[in-house]
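In this supplementary section we document a worked example of the pipeline. Step one takes a protein sequence of length 145 as its only input; no multiple sequence alignment statistics are reported here. Step two produces a three-dimensional model, which step three serialises into structure tokens for compact storage. The input and output of this example are shown verbatim.
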Amino acid sequence: MKTSDPNLVLTKEYDCSKEKLWQALTNHETMIQWYFENIPAFEPIVGFSTVFTVNSETREFIHNWIITESIPNKRIAYSWHFDGYEGKSISIFDIEEKENKTILTLTIKILTDFNDEITEFKRESCIGGWNYFLGDRLEPFLNKD
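The serialised model returned by step three reads:
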């Protein structure tokens, strides 16, 4: 993924309140149930940072997140980079209630180029990963009682 690429924008509709979605996106105890289970800590406070490792089949990715924006029940944004790899992005999660539904719009902006020779850094891989998290993981989590 390159800075010259258009932003990646994914939109998903959920049958829950914006408050419930906000909690799923920003509360450590809920995040580890549907997102990355090894996130050591998370606080929706600008400047907060966290570091954790995710292993793929062939690589280790040390995730570095720094909260860049936090508006309760509306928006959370954080930068991402991976130790040992080029590239940096920002993920912006916007929440909006509409007709008894809550709409999540995720925007990924590339701040510095990723090496797209690495499969996990290809645009298609990014889209697939986010569709997995937002659809296969987050949606069932929000629907359970």
